[in-house]
Specification:
Elements lengths: L20 H8 L4 H10 L6 H6 L3 H8 L4 H31 L4 H18 L4 H6 L1 H7 L4 H6 L12 H25 L15 H15 L6 H9 L21 H13 L26 H4 L9 H6 L6 H27 L4 H6 L1 H36 L9 H10 L10 H22 L8 H19 L7 H10 L7 H4 L13
Helix pairs in contact: 2-4, 10-20, 10-21, 11-19, 11-20, 16-18, 18-19
């Protein structure tokens, strides 16, 4: 009687010769065995059952694709993918230039039409028309008439199906219109006697106040990337799962911690009852906050407030926690902004080569100012929770104090007031978008159909009017040249041509 093998061999895999050679070569030049295994693991296994049953297992595909000339197949695969990616990119670029940029011709046509109409109405032959219709004549012969008429091309934005895209574009153009209008008024001397501390940094406290409040209570109305950045640079206030903590036990994630802080606000900031001092207390936490028990249960017994026990359970001192945060967050933020500003400085490489010490000194100052500003803005916003808990009565501004905390954090924008306008306006645009969504969610206002298009058209008209009256007030040479193309003037910068320059282009903050 033959004895069975203690370790039987697996069934033989099908040989590559058993597979149709055309199919085998098509597979080899399309996908590797490792790539198919990853595809099978993450996509095919989650597909409908009929597709899963028909798809071959990774082992069979590996036996088919494995040959003695894998390097040759990998080279062909890479070449084909580069070709397909290049062709796709060219097709997308052709679509952008023909379908999207082509719509800018509408503004060119309207601008030229209203310019010629204005010229004709100002002629001698149109004198009877001006006498019969004085108001219409004054409107059509205004210097700003072509610019305002050309802005009607902005209604072409309505062809975009994405509401969020239209809203984002409308907010961006509206804030730029407000910025250019301010520049024009400043160039005319309206703010000649403004105090030295006056500037766009004053918008930052309002924006950060609204954003922090939305982050805590209306996170679905808050920009996700902005929130991820804040959470990733809050090492001391949001407690991460310890490495020694058992994996089988639950631990609240950062979003759960923020939701719990919102619930603490609604409960009017209850005090902290330490299970260490009162082990017989069956309910040391409100029923809606049981999820944070892994953090608050071992918290220091001398902590008086539940919010402090959640944010810094191992340290009873709120000021020491803020100091530890600054020492921990500074290196990572400094590395991040060094990389960002270095990338933005690449177009100015000639200035770095001609005077490296001066340019590096300026780059270092910008990195340092932005790092301290963002670090202290985030740290102050979190530390204000402890400050208000120890200062305010429990029922005083129980939920509104989040706005006040963000406002205090935004005051640190004063450090970067000279060169931080772009960052401030970016935060303002995010705040406007967030506030609009919060208002719709809570029923404060309702969306008007086509309202984003109306805002876009009006803002475009304002930008055209400002550019017509004072080209230098429009910040950025590329923006001015883009307006020149839309108006049919070509790739030209009127501010340079007329010898004018914006105050903002001289690196002066407004």
């Amino acid at each position: 009687m033959a004895t069975a093998e203690p370790y039987p061999s697996p069934p033989a895999s099908p040989k590559a010769s058993d597979v149709d050679p055309v199919l085998r070569n098509a597979l080899r030049y399309t996908i590797s065995a490792k790539e198919y295994k990853t595809l099978h693991e993450y996509l095919i296994t989650r597909s409908p059952k009929a597709l899963r049953n028909r798809a071959p297992p990774p082992a069979r595909v590996s036996s088919i694709l494995t040959t003695g000339d894998d390097h040759h197949a990998a080279t062909i695969r890479a070449s084909l993918r580069v070709f397909i990616a290049s062709q796709t990119g060219l097709q997308i670029w052709d679509l952008i230039t023909t379908q999207l940029w082509g719509r800018g011709k509408a503004q060119t046509v309207l601008f030229r039409f209203f310019t010629r109409l204005r010229s004709n109405i100002l002629g001698k032959d149109a004198a009877p028309f001006r006498q019969r219709n004085p108001r219409i004549a004054r409107s059509l012969t205004s210097r700003l008439a072509p610019a305002a008429g050309a802005s009607l091309a902005g209604f072409a934005l309505g062809v975009y199906p994405s509401d969020q895209l239209r809203l984002t574009i409308a907010i961006y153009v509206a804030t730029r219109a407000a910025e250019f209008t301010y520049n024009a008024l400043e160039n005319e001397g309206w703010f000649a006697n403004k105090p030295r501390w006056w500037g766009s940094w004053m918008l930052m406290p309002l924006a950060t106040g609204q954003l922090l409040h939305a982050f805590v209570f209306d996170r679905e109305c808050f920009p996700k990337a902005y929130g991820d950045f804040i959470l990733s640079h809050t090492p001391n206030y949001l407690q991460r799962r310890p490495q020694s903590y058992p994996s089988a036990l639950p631990w609240p994630d950062p979003n759960t911690i923020v939701d719990s802080l919102a619930e603490i606000s609604r409960l009017h900031w209850p005090p902290f009852t330490s299970p260490i001092l009162f082990p017989s207390n069956p309910n040391p936490l409100p029923s809606s906050l049981v999820s944070i028990s892994p953090i608050t249960s071992p918290a220091h017994p001398s902590i008086p407030h539940l919010s402090c026990a959640l944010l810094h359970p191992s340290t009873p001192s709120c000021s020491k926690t803020l100091l530890t945060y600054t020492l921990t967050a500074f290196p990572s933020l400094a590395k991040f902004f060094t990389l960002v500003f270095a990338l933005f400085s690449l177009p100015r490489y000639k200035a770095f080569l001609s005077n490296p010490s001066k340019e590096l000194n300026g780059l270092s100052k910008r990195v340092l100012k932005m790092t301290v500003f963002i670090m202290m803005a985030i740290g102050t916003s979190w530390a204000s929770i402890c400050l208000f808990a120890n200062t305010f009565p429990r029922n005083f501004l129980s939920t509104q104090r989040w706005f006040l905390g963000g406002f205090l954090g935004g005051l640190w924008a004063f450090l970067d007031r000279q060169t931080g306008r772009a960052s401030f306006l970016y935060s303002v645009r995010l705040s406007i978008d967030s506030a609009w969504k919060v208002g719709k969610k809570r029923g404060w206002w309702r969306a008007v159909k086509g309202g984003d298009l109306a805002v876009f058209v009006v803002a475009l008209g304002v930008i055209n009017a400002v550019y017509e009256g004072d080209p230098g007030a429009v910040q950025g040479g590329l923006v001015r040249k883009g307006l020149g193309i839309l108006r049919g003037e070509g790739w030209t910068d009127r501010a340079e041509r007329e010898g004018k320059e914006s105050l903002s282009d001289k690196s002066k903050d407004s």
